[in-house]
Design goal:
The chain has about 60 residues and is an all-alpha fold. The protein has two helices and no strands.
Amino acid sequence: MKTKMVTLIIAGIIAWIVAGIIGLLIDAESKFIWTCVVGAALGFVGIIYTVRRDRRSGL
């Protein structure tokens, strides 16, 4: 279960990073760029949370 969830979160992080790079290339508004940065950062928090939760539950 942990591997599937972490893989899914990593895919989301990559999607946010790609969207941010595309936003930079097309000179998007800063609001869009910051949304991508925060989305990727929350993905890293999500990985930490998921791994910690799985260790505590013994799965």
